[in-house]
Design a protein that fits this description.
Layout: H1 3-14, H2 18-37, E1 42-44, E2 48-55, E3 58-61, E4 68-71, E5 74-81, H3 83-87
Antiparallel strand pairs: 1-2, 2-5, 3-4
Length: 90
């Protein structure tokens, strides 16, 4: 399911227009992004938690050339599904 399909189905279920639903989704995603950029955890009950984690710098080795290089630290987005969501896929 892509974004357009999801928005269309959500609009149908809520009885809203496609544009109203798309605008609402854009506001939701903007708020989630803002909170994640601030370093907060975003929890959606029954779905899971989104969190930005810092990966430490590390040394990586190119297997072809055996050249060692330093990989700098970076921020990555992680998702931990809720227990109720995990249970549906077992």
């Amino acid at each position: 399911m892509n974004n357009k399909d999801f928005t269309t189905e959500l609009a149908r279920r809520l009885g809203l227009t496609y544009k109203e639903t798309a605008d609402t989704m854009n506001v939701l995603l903007a708020e989630m992004t803002k909170h994640l950029e601030e370093g907060n955890i975003v929890s959606i009950q029954g779905f899971g938690n989104f969190e930005v984690k810092k990966k430490a710098e590390r040394i990586s080795v190119n297997p072809a050339t055996k050249l060692r290089m330093l990989v700098p630290p970076k921020l990555v987005l992680s998702f931990k599904p809720a227990i109720s969501l995990k249970g549906k896929f077992r």
